[in-house]
Structure formats: C-alpha cells, structure tokens
Design a protein that fits this description.
Order of helices and strands: HHHHHHHHHHEEHHEHE
Number of helices: 13
Number of strands: 4
Strand content: under 5%
Oligomer: single chain
Strand order of the largest sheet: 1-2
Structural class: mainly alpha
Helix content: 55-70%
Distance between the termini: 63 Å
Largest sheet: 2 strands, antiparallel
Shape: globular
Amino acid sequence: MTQQIPPDPDSTSKDGLRKLILRLPTAISEVVKDKTAQWTNSSKLREERIALDWKEAAVNAVKAEIEDLLRRKAAHGGIAEPWTEAELKLAEEITDATRKAEISNITRTEAYWQFYEQYPEVHWAFLAHMVSRNAGWWMTDLKGSRLQNVLDEEGKQSFYRFFERSNALIFQDAYPQLLLYAKSRELGRSLFHLLPHFHVSRFMQPFWERFWIDRSSPLLTVGLIINEQNYIDKQVFRHPHYQISMDDFNESALIQLLGMNHIIFPLRENSGDEDGLKECESAADGQDCPESGNVHRLAGRSVVNPVSLPARIALGKSLYAMLFGLRAVHSGAQRFAASVPHTGSRADYWPDLFTANPAEALTPAVQGLLSRGQSFPKARRCPAASVSIAPS
C-alpha cells in the first residue's frame, strides 16, 4: 500500500511566492502604464482653467453682516420679525415642494439638477447634484451583490443609514434656500428674511443677501459648503447613534477598497451624438465601446478624513474649484448630467462594465475578469443593481 505524503506547506507557499515574483515585472509595468495614463489625462483636464470671480469686498461685507447679526441676537435674543400671511403661505408652498422632492436620493439628485438648469448662477446646486449622485452609487453598492460576501447585513445597514441620513439632511436644509431664491427671482425682491422659517442658520442670510446684490457665485457656494457640513456634523458625525460607525469609517480599508472614499465626476466627451451613451449597446462582443459615446474619463477627489469637519469643508471647496474652475471637467460633467438620468447604479457612467439588470449580470466566478480592465458585452456585466434609494 502506497502511503500518500501530504504536500509540504512551505513548498506550497514557496511556489506561490515564486509565481508572484515572476509576475511582478508585468504587474509593475501595468501599474506604471496606468499611472502614466492617469497623469496624462489629469494634465489634459487642467489645461484650460476658468477664473472664479472671488470678490474680497463681498467677503468682507458678509463678515461684517454676520458679526452684526450675532450682536443683534445677543442683544435681542434673536427674535424674528413678524411675517405676513402672504409670506407664510409662500413658505408653506416651499415646505410642501421640499417634502415632495425629498422622497429618495433619486428625487433629491434630480431636484438639484432641475434647479441648476433654471438658475445656473447658483453653482452649489450643480456641485450638490454631482455629489448626491455619488451618495446614490454608494448606497446602491451597499444593497447590491458586490458586497454580498464582504460585509454583514448589520454593517451594510449602518453605512447605508449614514449615507442616506447625510444626503437627506443636506437636502432638507439647502433645498428651501434654493426655492426661496427662485421665489425672490419670481417676485423681484429679496425674501431671505424668511430663512428662519425653515430653521436655516442665520449664518446663511448675509450670503444670500449679498448674492442677491452682486451674484457672487463662489462666495455663496463656499457659504453653503460651510453651512451644510456644519449642519450634518451635529446631526450625523457627532450624533451618538453614528459615532461607532464613524470611528470605523475613518479607518476602514473596506471603504477604500470599494471606492467609497472617492467622490467622482464622470465626464462625457463632446461627440455631437444625441444618442450618447447608448452607442455602447451596439458595440460588438468584447469590443471597447466608442469613447465618444461612453464615459471613460473620471475626475474627482479622495476623502482623506471624512470625520474631520475642516477636512470635509476643504474637500468641498476643492471639488467646487475642480468642477467650475476646469473647463474640461465642467463641460464634461454637465454633458453627463444632462444626458444620463441618475438611477443610483454605476451603470449610469460605465454601462459596458455594470448593469442594473440582474439577468445581465456576470456569475461571481467571471467577475474576477473585470480586474483586467476588459469591456464586456451587454449580457456579461458586473451587477450594480439599481435599487429604490429611499430612507431606511
């Protein structure tokens, strides 16, 4: 009887190490090529800059008005001026409109875009639209099959609630401000004294009043970034219910692995083709989709320390400078937003790699091929199911 000798563990590990070493030159070469391409594309995106109209005089005026507000609040207890019946009715209309638009991440994201199309001078609305798309993609990832065997249900629900809560709170605070501006435009007079009716911080009134005078888009955008990040800092980041998950979030290798620490702006090339991304559907099996019709360029920033309020404010300013200060990013992101409805699925921006239809999804064994950067036909794509991104 022949005795079978079990394999030597050391020998097995040595074989694995040997194979790894043999693959290193190819792997390093691929990394270098990838990084070179990234730097080249990044340089192209930075070629043409747009000057942001930052007015120091307006900044100083807003600072003085904020200081005056604080003095008056300390002296008189911050008592609001009485509002007329017409103003209260108008405020209720805005409240109802906000309530209808805040149903889910899908409706919020669309509301930002519709507002920006009407009032492109309010830059923050477009920035909010693009960031809100990212929140939707993250939440869908948490509900999709990509995390099926990576994160337990409790962990997925914890992160999902965090993203949903942050997205919803910013909308509830900011959207009434946007609609109040729209009503002011409609009636031809400033209505920003009504901001306290929506429980908006008095910090924002000087920014809106100054914007009403000189339309200084960058100053208003920075004011909204600071205000909204402070708002969710108290309601989410410092809230006891989220404190434990936030500690995990700040150091989670999983979050970085899944790209949830990256805020991206998909850029659509100017192809002149109204069918846009649909060109990809007619591509032959295994063939790259035409770059003119697909989204191959992404711009964005990484969230280095999401728990830090100053870091989030700095990130917001950086994203704004990229989105409105670089012409290629601004025009590409606008073309994308105008032509690709937000569904919450990553198929929105890379339909040749992802699908919202489970019937078209790859089997788990085949999904590993995606790491090679291949383009898959319609019936063989990575599942990124579009789910109803509603409050959980």
